[in-house]
Design a protein that fits this description.
about 0% strand
């Protein structure tokens, strides 16, 4: 038995794309940061070797400020990347969620003719399809109950007309049972 991950809320392609872009940009930023650090450290070390008028106890006195500044720059870059990615993800999900919420509220108000429609590249397509299927099922249930109600109404009207009262009562009871069954399934 092969188990497959189901897509419930977010498309796995989007998750993989987001993760891959984030990892690649973070990796590139770290490589650049280390390269700049090494370049500046080597240049400062060479300058130190040729100048004898500086009083330096260890190479850490030269390397530590460079390391600190580059790490602060790297931290600011990663924070900006996270901020931009967060805004992008909010924009990617908030529009479809807003449209779905608006349509769901119309359905909740009793308009069962509503179908939740999202743009082709929007997230939550599976959720919208499931909600549309649910609304269609509810719509069919109401149509069936309305049909059974029509049968009961017709049978009650036939009670007053001529013919066998027993047969008419049985028809009414049968119609009521059909209506009860329809409501039970609903």
């Amino acid at each position: 038995m092969k188990l497959r991950r189901r897509t419930y809320i977010t498309d796995t392609k989007l998750q993989i794309k987001f993760t891959l872009i984030f990892v690649l940009v973070s990796f590139a930023a770290n490589v650049i940061s280390v390269s700049v650090f090494n370049f500046l450290a080597v240049n400062n070390m060479e300058a130190l070797m040729w100048s004898t008028h500086m009083d330096i106890q260890s190479t850490g006195e030269i390397v530590n400020p460079l390391f600190l500044y580059l790490n602060i720059g790297n931290f600011i870059f990663i924070a900006m990347l996270l901020f931009i990615t967060g805004i992008w993800m909010m924009k990617k999900t908030s529009g479809p969620l807003y449209r779905m919420s608006k349509d769901i509220n119309r359905i909740a108000d009793g308009d069962l003719s509503v179908n939740i429609t999202l743009r082709q590249k929007d997230e939550f397509q599976d959720t919208a399809d499931d909600l549309n299927r649910m609304t269609g099922s509810i719509r069919e249930g109401f149509e069936m109950i309305n049909e059974k109600y029509g049968d009961v109404s017709k049978a009650v009207r036939n009670l007053d007309e001529g013919g066998s009262k027993v047969n008419n009562c049985e028809a009414v009871l049968k119609s009521i049972e059909g209506l009860k069954e329809g409501i039970g399934r609903f």
